[in-house]
Structures are given as structure tokens and as C-alpha cells.
Amino acid sequence: MKPTIINVSLNNKFNNFSYPIFIGNGLLCNCEEILKKFVLKRKVILIHDNFFSLKNKDNEQFISFVKTINKLCESVNLIGIPGGDKSKNISQLECILEESLSFKIDRSSLIIAFGGGVIGDIAGFAASILLRGIDFVQVPTTLLAQVDSSVGGKTGINSNKSKNLIGSFHQPIAVIADIDILKSLPKREFLAGLVEVIKYGLIYDVEFFDSLENNYRDILSYDQLKLNEIISKSCEIKSLIIKNDEKESGKRALLNLGHTFGHAIESFGKYDGTIVHGEAVSIGICLAFRLSSKMSYCPQFETDRVVRFFKKLNLPTSLQELINLPITTTEMLKKFKYDKKNKNNQLTFILNKKIGKSFIKNNMDENILIEFLNDEI
């Protein structure tokens, strides 16, 4: 079966740029036609999650993918790094940069990121600064990466202050999302990715949210048709939102629904796996809806519906569930102040008027936040 192709088009004042997202089954084991255009006669650096290994026969898709690249490119050099947010740091980035340069690359060389969101973020950032910028291809292997982090060109690493504060906008030249590889995901990671899928319905498309509510059992059973549908729809919505706002000066910020809370929550866990990104965003989205209702923007029954759906999926929905994290109102506020959406020292949050209708709330009143957090913690 031919892959679904979503084209991401970006309009900016310098040029119009577009790239394809290939979505389907068996893409990594039959990728020669797709890859030929991007890797032919180039030096390739394949940055991959250490979970994938040429020595492990169970990694059939990875092995097949590397063999295909070897047939097409001038040379391929592999750099394996640990998955997980602890790898998104300046030391790991430096290792990638120095090792990449040791391969005697030039500006025609190409980086391929093979892994989840962490691999894509740090590999993309490396591509953006090596030789002042070389091309890269995203091969996302988690649901979260396929529907969100691999699309849109946000790359970067974490700071000690907060998440993703060091980085750049650097668009891939292609994204290859193979649905089959999702079968290797632990259930926890799959659910974490599903949070980002639900987010698209909440910010932009109530009918998509309706569909997720009605079909979530099929999705959790890895129904291939349903997975293709939700990944394609998520990528379509994201591409529409970023088309005229590549660098998040306006409506692209809506994609951060739940993330101001979520990033703060993650940092309390010190990225040690106590809570993963999607779980933190699940709580963050529920908090954003509760805050929206508290401020009389969103009807309470809409908020209740959202929280109820996350509970059906056995995802966390409140700060009170995080008994092992030292969360306080004071520390949460400190972390909010490092959020990238803030302007003129004023806090910015993404809130909702209803399901499918998010908006940007600038100049958030700290007193309202303090009262809200005191009730929630």
C-alpha cells in the first residue's frame, strides 16, 4: 500500500519551503524509493536511540533501513545515544557534534534522526549548527514524535532552568513515520503520545476529538487503519497551524496547550522517568481546562468531559496524583517564568473557550494562578 503523504508548507518572508511526511505501514523495510531522493551519494550521519542496534535481530526495521541507506549513500556513520530527556543536554550535544565532524562531513552531508522526540530534537539541533546548518530527515519511532515533535522544525536541548530553552528552528527535509514500529512501544509511551493527538482535537477540531472518544478502544488495540487516520489528521492540523507562523510569533503557540503546566511538572521529576512528557501534558491540559472554567472562559461540562476522557485512558489528570514529586505553588510559579511564550515579563497561557477552541491568554494575573494552584496542589 502506498504511504499517505502530508505536505508541510511554510510561508515566510524569505522563501516558501515545503517537505513531505510519509505515513504508512512497512515503510522502513521498503524505503528505497522514498530515501533515494534524500540520501543518494551523500555522507549520512544516522543518530539513533540506543534501543535500536544492528546486533539485535529483533530490530528488523532498523537493520533494513540501514542496509538501504548503505546502498544509496556515499557513506553512513552511526551515532547511538540513550533515549529519554536526560540525554537532551549540552554535554550530549557536544559529543554528537565532535563525532559528526570526525567523519569529515561537508555541507552536502545529511543527518537522519532515528528515534523518539528526544533523538529528533537533539539531532535536529545538531544539524542546525553543524557547518552553520545541514539537512536532516526525521524518522520518528514513537507516537508522540510521529504526531508532534518530528513536524514543524523545533529542535533543541534542555537547560537546568527548564525544558527546551536552548535550540533553533530547523525544518527537516522529510519525515518518515512507519506505523509498524509503534508496536515496539511500551503501553505507557504509546498513551503518552496519544495525549498529543488528543491535544489537536482540543485546540482546533472538536469533530476530531469526538472521533477519538468514539474510537479510542480501536486505537489502543493498534488498529492500523485508525492509527493511520489519527497520525495523518494530527500532522494535517499541525501543518495548517504552523504554515504562516513557523517561529511561533502568533497562533503556533496554541500547540502548547497544557505544556506550560506540563513542562513545569516534568522538571520536578528531573527527567528520571517518574513522569514522562505525555503524562505531564495530560495533567497540564486538564489544569488548563480547569483554569479556563475557573476564569469563566469555558463551560464546566466541557472541562468535565475532557478530564473524564483522560481518566478513561488511565492517564493522570491532577497534581494531587503526583505524591512523589515536591510540587509547590511557589516553585511552579518560578518555573512558569522560564516559559518561552512569555512576553514583557508577563505570563502567557493557552486556555480554552470550549473543546476545539483554544486561545492565547497574555498577561495572566499571578494572583489568580496562586489561588488556582493552591486549590489544585
Structure notes:
The protein has 377 residues and is of the alpha/beta class. It has two domains: 4-183, Rossmann fold (3-Layer(aba) Sandwich); 197-376, Up-down Bundle (Dehydroquinate synthase-like, alpha domain). 44% of the residues lie in helices and 18% in strands. The strands form three sheets. A seven-stranded mixed β-sheet has the order 1-2-9-6-5-3-4, sandwiched between helices. It has a two-stranded antiparallel ribbon with strand order 7-8. Strands 10-11 form a two-stranded antiparallel sheet. Strand 3, helix 2 and strand 4 (75-81) form a beta-alpha-beta unit. It is globular. The mean pLDDT is 94.
Level of helix content?
40-55%
Number of DSSP helical runs: 13
User: Which overall shape is indicated by the principal axes computed on the Cα atoms?
Assistant: globular
User: How is the main sheet built?
Assistant: 7 strands, mixed
**Residues in β-strands, percent:** 15-25%
- CATH architectural group of the largest domain: 3-Layer(aba) Sandwich
Structural domain tally: 2
Stretches where pLDDT is under 50 for at least 5 consecutive residues are none
CATH topology of the largest domain: Rossmann fold
Spell out the helices and strands N to C: EEHEHEHEHEHEEEHHHHHHHEEH
Strand order of the largest sheet: 1-2-9-6-5-3-4
Number of strands: 11
Structural class: alpha/beta
Structure described in brief:
The protein is built from 13 helices and eleven strands.
Give the topology.
Layout: E1 4-11, E2 16-24, H1 32-39, E3 43-49, H2 60-72, E4 75-81, H3 90-101, E5 110-115, H4 117-129, E6 135-140, H5 143-149, E7 154-157, E8 166-169, E9 174-178, H6 187-204, H7 206-220, H8 224-242, H9 259-268, H10 277-294, H11 300-312, H12 329-336, E10 349-354, E11 357-361, H13 366-376
Parallel strand pairs: 2-9, 3-4, 3-5, 5-6, 6-9
Antiparallel strand pairs: 1-2, 7-8, 10-11
Helix pairs in contact: 5-6, 5-8, 6-7, 6-8, 6-10, 7-8, 9-10, 10-11, 12-13
